[in-house]
Amino acid sequence: MLTADLDVLTGYLTMHRERTWAQCQAGVASRFPGGMNEAKGRLLKEPAEWRPLCCDPAAVGIARRALRDFAFRAGLCDRTDDEVEAARRAFLAELGAGEAAAVRTDDTLEVTRGEIRLVLSADQQRVNRALWPRQAEDSADA
After folding, report:
1. Any idea which of 38-47, 72-81, 86-95 has the lowest mean pLDDT?
2. Which pTM value belongs to this model?
3. Which residues of 118-133 are buried (b: 16+ CB within 10 A; e: fewer)?
4. Which of 40, 45, 52, 118 has the most CB atoms less than 10 A away?
5. What integer pLDDT is reported at residue 47 of this predicted model?
6. Distance in angstroms (rounded) separating the CA atoms of residues 81 and 101
7. Strand duo 126-131 + 61-62: pairing
8. What is the b/e burial string over 85-116, where b = at least 16 CB atoms within 10 angstroms of the residue's CB?
9. Would you list the DSSP string of 56-103?
């Protein structure tokens, strides 16, 4: 937060609570795994590796944050959790068994359809993240 003249920092809020503003500006790495500084580089395996989807959409769990992010990306923020969950199951069902998912360097799987990219656990039993689709120039995501 800045003053009205935009010349004095009056407040600071970040996902990286372990670092001060000065540390973030100086590029000090996060002390927690998965920090922004650790996300540099490609998240998909190179050369590309693909694995078919073989999950049961009704049985796949979803992290709470991923459900909220899915609702946002699908334009369902005004819907109940049950409606969003039904839409998420339908999204997975539309992908169909056997659709190729990209394998990430941590062996999780990523699949994109329309405006939504899902990251599933390696065993395809849980949706870990719901993200925007990759852009052609993307080399990493947050």
Report:
1. 38-47
2. 0.66
3. bbbbeebebbbbbbee
4. 118
5. 87
6. 26
7. parallel
8. eebbbebbeebeeeeebbbbeeebbbbeeeeb
9. -TTT-EE-HHHHHHHHHHTT-TTS-HHHHHHHHHHHHHHH-TT-EEEE
